């Protein structure tokens, strides 16, 4: 079984850091799926957002990694999708970040697929 290195940071706190990283680069429609009450869930949280271009998706993914490392010095356990930049997945074991190109997000529809999870939408701050 895979385990996170920094167990002092709760999955809920880690989830907030991931969302912050997404918001830093203007990730759109940031959503948190709380999977803790979902039977056989593979993580505690999914944090999902959309981007409009390859460049933005790449920047969002880098920002997520930067925010998490800056706050808790934790690197992802696994990453994939950086090459084709349509869906970048960053796995922190208890928290999995999904950075989608807008049309790919609609296609995979994780929010519907994991419909039993509690869904929280993050409001964009007025800057």
Automatic annotation (TrEMBL):
Interacts with ribosomal protein uL14 (rplN). Belongs to the Iojap/RsfS family. Keywords: Cytoplasm, Repressor, Translation regulation. Its main location: cytoplasm. The keyword Lipid metabolism does not apply. SUPFAM superfamilies: Nucleotidyltransferase (SSF81301). One of its GO terms (cellular component) is cytoplasm. The keyword rRNA processing does not apply. GO terms for biological process: cytosolic ribosome assembly; negative regulation of ribosome biogenesis; negative regulation of translation. This is Ribosomal silencing factor RsfS. Functions as a ribosomal silencing factor. Interacts with ribosomal protein uL14 (rplN), blocking formation of intersubunit bridge B8. Prevents association of the 30S and 50S ribosomal subunits and the formation of functional ribosomes, thus repressing translation. Pfam families: RsfS. InterPro entries: Iojap/RsfS/C7orf30, NT_sf. It is found in: Cytoplasm. GO terms for molecular function: ribosomal large subunit binding.
């Amino acid at each position: 079984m895979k385990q996170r290195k920094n167990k002092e940071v709760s999955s809920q706190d880690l989830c907030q850091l991931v969302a912050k990283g997404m918001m830093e680069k203007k990730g759109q429609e940031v959503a948190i799926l709380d999977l803790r009450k979902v039977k056989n869930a593979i993580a505690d949280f999914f944090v999902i957002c959309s981007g409009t271009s390859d460049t933005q998706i790449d920047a969002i993914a880098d920002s997520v990694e930067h925010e998490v490392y800056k706050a808790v010095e934790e690197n992802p356990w696994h990453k994939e999708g950086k090459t084709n930049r349509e869906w970048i997945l960053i796995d922190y074991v208890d928290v999995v970040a999904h950075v989608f190109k807008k049309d790919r997000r609609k296609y995979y529809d994780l929010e519907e697929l994991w419909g039993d999870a509690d869904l929280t939408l993050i409001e964009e701050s007025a800057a």
